[in-house]
Amino acid sequence: MSVELLLGALLAAAAVAFVAVPLLRGGEPPPSEEPAQETLVAAEERDRALAELKELEFDHRTGKITDEDYRALVQPLRRRAASSLANGATLPRGTAEHPSEQHFSEGSASSSRSDR
Amino acid sequence: MARRASPARLVVALGVAAMLAVFLVYTAIAGGTPQLRPGELNGRTGEVALIGKVVGRVSGDARGSGLRFRLRDVKGTAAVPVVYRGSVPDLFRSGRDISLRGELRSGTFVGKPGTLVTKCPSKYTDKKQT
Amino acid sequence: MPELGRAALIVCLGLAVYAVAAGSYAAWKRRQRLAESAENAILAAFVAALVASAVLMIALVDKDFSLVYVYEHTSLELPRAYTISAFWGGQEGSLLLWLLILTGFSALAVILGRRSSHSLLAWTVPVLGGVILFFSLLLVAVASPFATQTAAADGLGLNPSLQNPYMLAHPPMLYLGFVGLTIPFAFAMGALLARRSDELWIVVTRRWTLVAWTFLGFGQLLGAHWAYVEVGWGGYFAWDPVENAALMPWLAATAFLHSVMIQEKRGMLKIWNVLLVVGAFALALFGTFLTRSGILSSIHSFTEGSIGPWFLTFIGLVVAGSLALILSRLPLLRSKTRLESPISREATFLYNNLLLVAFCLTILWGVIYPILTEALRGEPVTVGPPYYNFFLNAFGLPLLLLMGIGPLIAWRRASLRGLSRTFAWPLGIALAIGVALVALGAGSSVPGLVGYTFCAFVLSSIGLEFARGTRARQALSGGSWFAAFTELVGRNRRRYGGYIVHASIVLLAIGVIGSSAYDTTREQRLRTGESMRVGDYTLTYRGSTQERGANAMELRALVDVERGGESLGTMQPGKNSYFAEQQVSNEAAIRSDRMSGEDLFLIAEQIGRDQVFLKVLVKPLVNLIWIAGFVFLGGALIALWPDAREQRRLALRYGGREALSRA
């Protein structure tokens, strides 16, 4: 029985030690590099806009959306994507899904300026 | 003319209200069988669910003239004679707690076929009852 | 050994208290080191729970009857496998399993969460700690698995009806599901506490939710199979409160899985999503409360436990606390996006959610109806299968239809012209099949016919999605059809995995419809040599046999089966009488037809040398239900499959550059 209590005490001691380790480490904790909420929300907006465009393209290609509907929907989406790109520009690259998408996003941003 | 309010909220509210109405009305009118103990039966008419403990001798044939036994309050003494025809679960025996649906007819509870259910000896008892 | 087990549980409780207290303080005051310390407490809690579990498991395997729990749930002759399953066969042990899984998942969540955002994790830790606190408190103070007694010679044994392989898989799988829902809940509350307005909590918990939901779904299917094959009354689901207890959180989780997609794609439904995740977690707790408290009569449980009030209090605290938090953070949850059209993919998702939640609430209403009526009228009134089946049709059939409509509709706004193009083929196929089914006699059940037609619609809609997608991909990148298909699925795992899961639900629906709307039941007493006809089958009673098995006397009725003049063999339905437990179990005989998926189900009663009472059920297509389970798993696995590129990208975004190096 006393062996069990000893083991139990050891477990408790180990737990306390493990919990205390971060507190006993000296020095300053490195400053948090997490981006601000506004930046994150803007980046999510951008992702959303780009993803919507991509899905619109795909739906059009697979025939789910008629040419008419596509033309009607794509302009406002491109504009939204372009503006969100401008807002989200503060975040590092590599946040687009696929390298080819980056070309696409840059391409659509420029094409939205020419009003077709 | 653009509408300020989104149609979504209206759709949601109406949908929820409609569904609520449907199942409240259903249970109020069509649904529900009262669940009683033998002690609560006294002269009750209509179909009810009876819950109790099988006591005494079990006789007869559930696939023939009828299985006969007495059902007593799980915690009490009031008892009622029962006759039942239909499938009988294997755990059924004297001393087990069961439930079944049926009607009281001239002092005997006549069970509805296929409604006899025994309680599994519990996995989660506080105290073991042998 | 029990002293060590008790000590380990107390250590776990202490760690949980620390995680809550220190974790909250650290998150509030932004003390990074203290937050890390609280995270470690969660990790240590898992180790403590593991020690306690090991103690119980060893005691079980050693058949140490000085432990009350071991005495009550095992016996000397109980085979090793079922001795292990006795771990979760009783109240205290199953609570310990819950704690083990809870601390395990929490520890994993902490380890993975460290890779993305410390600030979110900082507030998630106290929430996790709070739940761990509740369960360890129960185990320490109310339902200890380590209560001792003077060692008895032999134990009481495990109920024979629990001695089958299902007992090894079904409860743990359900627990993995129930407990798994704690993680999305904790992160959602953590995000609110941290006043975050981004979607990180959804991104982080996406796979957790899917995993928990898959376990819960498959676990229920296992339970249904158990009921069908072992209990053998001819059915697989009886709307028993305990069965409903697992179904409700699963429905809520299904709704949640879909509505987060809307939040992800369109930024809508933020409040709805938080409410749903709280609901799913609360229902999981409620479900386990129902099973244990004895508050409802069910064939599964029947106990007056003292554990009930504890659970109710905890559920009350969780719901009240979560609602208060949500109310206080309402400004964060407002979304700018509005639903543009009632005919759009967002709208279909919304309708799907409404139907799922409505169905869930219907079941909840049916489950608590006896409690309410007893409180109000003095006598409990129960509702039975007719109530539930009515709403299964009322809500389930439209849900089925929506599964087919959703993929065919575009986001934001669908034009009628576009719709008529995409709907043409699936509608056409569905109608054609519907007509064919009527010709085959399916008109005998209108809901059945409607259900089948909807299933055809959904399957063609899904097939079309795969076909169109493959073709488009082929046009883009060339290559073989197969290469395009795998690339399509590989780049869109969630979508196409999801479609496969939908297909599995359709298979399930076909199986359920076939076996419940088009089944045949016949009961007859047969003398030796006498035959009966059921459907296409002719059954002849040949006599009975009695054999002494390892722990039971096995009585069997020999029934020859013939169809269309061809002999299909002999089936042996019967009963087992267990010596030690003095109990009889039903051993139904099932013959599955490989071609048609149909089952011939035989139950033998009153087996005598010269006569038997046979109950015969013919259940068409029932095996599709079990096949659906595997398709379900396959689809879920595809949807779950990790994407390294995506992980890196997300780590970089939410965690900053340092997180990327840790990922």
Overview of the molecule:
The complex is a heterotrimer of chains A (about 120), B (about 130) and C (about 675). Chain A has about 120 residues and is mainly α. In chain A, about 70% of the residues lie in helices and about 0% in strands. Chain A is built from four helices and no strands. By secondary structure, chain B is of the alpha+beta class. Chain B has two domains: about 1-30; about 35-120, Nucleic acid-binding proteins (OB fold (Dihydrolipoamide Acetyltransferase, E2P)), CATH 2.40.50.140. Chain B has one helix and seven strands, in the order H-E-E-E-E-E-E-E. Chain B has one helix at about 5-30; strands at about 35, 50-60, 65-70, 80-85, 95-105, 110, 115-120. In chain B, strands 2-3-4-6-5 form a five-stranded mixed β-barrel. Residues about 120-130 of chain B have low confidence and may be disordered. Chain C is an alpha+beta fold and about 675 residues long. Among the domains of chain C are: about 1-165, no CATH class; about 520-620, no CATH class. Chain C has helices spanning about 1-30, 30-60, 70-75, 80-85, 90-115, 120-140, 165-180, 180-195, 200-230, 240-265, 270-295, 305-330, 330-335, 345-375, 385-405, 415-440, 445-475, 480-490, 495-515, 625-640, 645-660; strands at about 380, 520-525, 530-535, 535-550, 550-565, 565-570, 575-580, 585, 590, 600-605, 610-620. Chain C is globular, with a radius of gyration of 27 Å. Chains in contact: A-C, B-C. At the A-C interface, helix 1, helix 2 and helix 3 of A face helix 1, helix 2, helix 10, helix 16 and helix 17 of C.
